[in-house]
Amino acid sequence: MRNNLTYRLLYIFIGFFLLISLTTSAQKEEIRKEVKVVRPYEPVLSDAWKINIYPVTKDTTKYHPVIKYEIDPKPMMIPYHFKPIKPARMEGESIPRLYKNYLKLGIGNYITPLAEISISSLRSLDHACGFYLGSLSSLGKVKLANGKKVDGNYEDMKMMFYGKKMYRSSTIDGTLFLKRDKVLYYGYNPLLDTALSKDNIRQVFLNPGADVHYYSTHTDSTHLNFDFRLRYDYFSDKYSHYQHGVKLNANLFKMFDGKTVGLNMDMNYFNADIYPVGKFNTVANIEPWYFQSSDEWRIKASITGTVDATQENTIFRLYPKIRFQFKIIPEYLMAYLGVDGGMKINDYQTIVGVNPYIKPGLHVHNTDHKMDFYVGLSGSFVPGTEYKLHGSYSLVDNMPFFVNDTNRVGNRFYVQNDDVQVARVSGEFVTQAGKKLSLRLWAEFKDYSMSYLYKPWHMPGVNASLGVRYNLMDKILVTADMIFIGKRYVLSPDPVPDVITLKAYPDLNLGIEYRYRKILSFFLRFNNLAGIKYQNWNQYPTQGFFIMGGFTYSL
Length: 555
Prior knowledge:
Blueprint: H1 2-29, E1 101-108, E2 112-120, E3 127-138, E4 141-143, E5 149-151, E6 154-166, E7 170-184, H2 198-201, E8 202-216, E9 225-237, E10 242-256, E11 259-273, E12 278-293, E13 297-310, E14 314-329, E15 333-344, H3 348-354, E16 367-379, E17 385-404, E18 413-433, E19 437-450, E20 462-472, E21 476-485, E22 488-491, E23 499-502, E24 505-515, E25 520-527, E26 535-537, E27 540-541, E28 546-554
Antiparallel strand pairs: 1-2, 1-28, 2-3, 3-6, 4-5, 6-7, 7-8, 8-9, 9-10, 10-11, 11-12, 12-13, 13-14, 14-15, 15-16, 16-17, 17-18, 18-19, 19-20, 20-21, 21-24, 22-23, 24-25, 25-28, 26-27
């Protein structure tokens, strides 16, 4: 038994040993003997730090080299070769051709014909003369607030003969003219049930006159310069009211050592047969002045003495005037400040020019601008652009404000005067991009402080305008304008007076001209593109959308 157990243990030991040997042999056979090289072997030796100290011997011996040299000057011969220079040639600028005659014809809606003709002399060194005749009229109707359509006819006609004679150091020119304007008093109170005949509401203004102007044209500043003008106007209306007006101006000035002194004088005489009795008015001014300037600043100072004589009384006023202007940043920013004033003449012809719907023969007192304080900035951002900011505060006596006449149907205006204080701020920006594009932006804000009246009738607090001009190769010309008028207060002509507000409005206009030839062009003009029926004067609505087309011809 013991031997059997011994043999069994021996066999087990031998089998286990053989199994281990076979397993080891199998593992040895599975070992791969291939070596993959990723990159070439690069032996690297680390840098050894060494002491770099070299022996140095201090030499105390000083050596001064002695240099000997001689200069042997010899001229350097440079050969010159002359070549003839071509003489400069002055090429004269081409003078544009002038045409003796000019004709413009057009027609628009509301039956609005336009006609202009001009005849003038050609270019001359010593004289010029010509003739002009122009007419614009309309036969259209406008709609009132009550829905009724009434005749809103108008007519503007102007004829003029003019001439000029040039001498060596002076020039004289003169003009004979005739103006004729026709309007209708169509803006009656819409609350009244009435019908007005065209003959009863027609008004015609006639203005013939003459103007003579004589002035110096010295080419240097050592002479006494002068400027004289004489003008006569006869002004009348359909209702037998008339006015004779004579205006005489004389201005003298001379330079002394960079300073300029001068004297301005003018006399205005009016003799009018107007309501309620004949009126005459003489306004005379005399103004000595002084001017001096440098590269950085300029100043002008004067004082005006004014005599205002009427049938009722004669008054005398003094108006000091001074303007000081200086540069803050040359060519970019300039500041100015000053004081101004004067008497504004409100003759019959002038008032009709402001509001043609006034009561015939209306007499209006002159306006006294007692003092006007102002300050401003002007300059340029970049070449081709200009800007201006202006602020003023004015004291004004007898400023006229238009209100509807309540004694009739309210279609005519009379004047209420008041002493006011006016604060005004305005700004203007102009840019010119070569000859193709130009733009002008202007805005004005006013605030009135009244003494007696409740509001400044018909005076807007905000005015603004935007104008764009585009010239495409002198072939197509486009103009676009936008005018904005702020709200205004008016006195209602109802039996019970009340304050009403006229709404603010924009007025958009567009013009296109096509120059087919230098002598022939065609144009289109669009006014009031938005078709807004706004009112410049209370109860007087304007025409809506307007279009006119026509042509111009020169020969």
